[in-house]
């Protein structure tokens, strides 16, 4: 499916600002491709990003959608009280902890109308009828999976490829359902193990994601059977990324470990550890997107204040060795490093 790409590197959809049309176009211009992030956007805002991407280039690209889950019945009031204290600290009002569907149906209609070449889904499965509509529109359908069981379900609804997300990954885990009894929402698989297990369970092209930051990592997942590598954190400090200053600075400074937390959004996600994560993770309920809406004004105020201790510093486990600079240079370096890794293997194995 990605055979025609000169460099099998995809920039991950990173909702909330980091993945811009400029970033996708720069990666595509350097021989890769990527996904616009539709999460948190209205259909109109997404339409503008698609139009801008098409102004910048005429190469194929993707759009990523958050599949809405059921409304959690958990009592949010104890967590609301904690976030009220945070809000006082940053002198804002907490957000309304409402459930909503992220304008999902309207955004599915939009990507069908627009004939987007690659449409990926995370947090769940698209319906079989939406998969059919996308196929009729000429789109390839990709589903993010974090376990072999999810991979089998995605194959059953007619996915054309899977994005296999290892536990190293930055940002939200793509789990179909967040198990509140589990700190990470469900079984945790490292990327190589998951590519191997899923490759034995289903016969679909695989995109590997999670902790890939060097061309040798790209070569490793291709050697393990993946068709392409999807990198998020490796592009967070790219010139074209829309990453906010407090986030960029924390990534550049290093020195923090990462952890999976529901504290910011109510769904397990990997972030650099900061004060907010440390204080609230043990109490954070499984309630997405209610917790996302609740904490949003606090995170926005912390961003305005340039305070990294109050924002969701999404990042994968290898963030401290992620580069900065123009995205085209990052892609060119990944390609050089992948070829060097291949030559090393050839020398070693013949
Ligand atoms: C800041 C950030 C935002 C993300 N937003 C999304 C998103 O909107 N949709 C999605 O499918 N994955 C999202 N992800 C996860 C990526 O698709 C991918 O799985 C992850 O970046 C891979 O791990 P890495 O960050 O170590 O490269 C996000 C990751 C990061 C770091």
TrEMBL record:
Keywords: Detoxification, Flavoprotein, FMN, Monooxygenase, Nucleotide-binding, Oxidoreductase. InterPro entries: Aldolase_TIM (IPR013785), NMO (IPR004136). The keyword Phosphoprotein does not apply. Its cofactor is FMN. One of its GO terms (biological process) is response to toxic substance. The keyword Flavoprotein applies. It catalyses: 3 propionate 3-nitronate + 3 O2 + H2O = 3 3-oxopropanoate + 2 nitrate + nitrite + H2O2 + 3 H(+). One of its GO terms (molecular function) is nucleotide binding. CDD domains: NPD_like. Gene3D superfamilies: Aldolase class I. Pfam families: NMO (PF03060). SUPFAM superfamilies: Inosine monophosphate dehydrogenase (IMPDH) (SSF51412). PANTHER family: NITRONATE MONOOXYGENASE-RELATED. Nitronate monooxygenase that uses molecular oxygen to catalyze the oxidative denitrification of alkyl nitronates. Acts on propionate 3-nitronate (P3N), the presumed physiological substrate. Probably functions in the detoxification of P3N, a metabolic poison produced by plants and fungi as a defense mechanism. Belongs to the nitronate monooxygenase family. NMO class I subfamily. This is Probable nitronate monooxygenase. It comes from Amycolatopsis endophytica.
């Amino acid at each position: 499916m990605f055979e025609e790409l000169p460099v099998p590197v995809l920039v991950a959809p990173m909702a909330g600002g980091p993945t811009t049309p400029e970033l996708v176009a720069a990666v595509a211009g350097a021989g890769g491709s990527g996904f616009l992030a539709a999460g948190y956007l209205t259909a109109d805002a997404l339409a503008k990003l698609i139009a801008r991407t098409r102004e910048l280039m005429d190469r194929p690209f993707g759009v990523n959608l958050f599949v809405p889950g059921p409304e959690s019945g958990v009592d949010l009031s104890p967590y609301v009280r904690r976030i009220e204290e945070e809000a006082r600290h940053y002198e804002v009002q907490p957000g309304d902890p409402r459930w909503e569907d992220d304008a999902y149906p309207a955004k599915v209609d939009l990507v069908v109308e627009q004939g987007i070449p690659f449409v990926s889904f995370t947090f769940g499965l698209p319906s079989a009828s939406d998969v059919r509509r996308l196929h009729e529109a000429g789109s390839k359908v990709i589903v993010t999976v974090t376990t072999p069981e999810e991979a089998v379900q995605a194959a059953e609804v007619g996915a054309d490829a899977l994005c296999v997300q290892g536990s190293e990954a930055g940002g939200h885990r793509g789990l179909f359902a967040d198990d509140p009894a589990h700190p990470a929402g469900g079984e945790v698989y490292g990327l190589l193990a998951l590519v191997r297990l899923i490759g034995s369970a289903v016969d679909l092209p695989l995109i590997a994601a999670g902790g890939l930051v060097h061309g040798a990592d790209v070569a490793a997942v291709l050697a393990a059977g993946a068709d392409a590598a999807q990198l998020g954190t490796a592009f967070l400090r790219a010139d074209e990324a829309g990453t906010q200053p407090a986030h960029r600075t924390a990534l550049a400074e290093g020195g923090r470990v990462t952890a999976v937390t529901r504290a910011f959004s109510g769904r397990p996600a990997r972030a650099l550890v900061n004060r907010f994560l440390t204080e609230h993770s043990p109490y954070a309920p499984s309630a997405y997107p209610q917790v996302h809406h609740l904490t949003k004004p606090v995170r926005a105020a912390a961003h305005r204040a340039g305070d990294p201790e109050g924002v969701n510093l999404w990042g994968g486990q290898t963030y401290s060795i992620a580069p900065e600079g123009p995205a085209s240079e990052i892609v060119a370096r990944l390609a050089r490093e992948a070829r060097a890794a291949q030559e090393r293997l050839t020398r070693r194995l013949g």
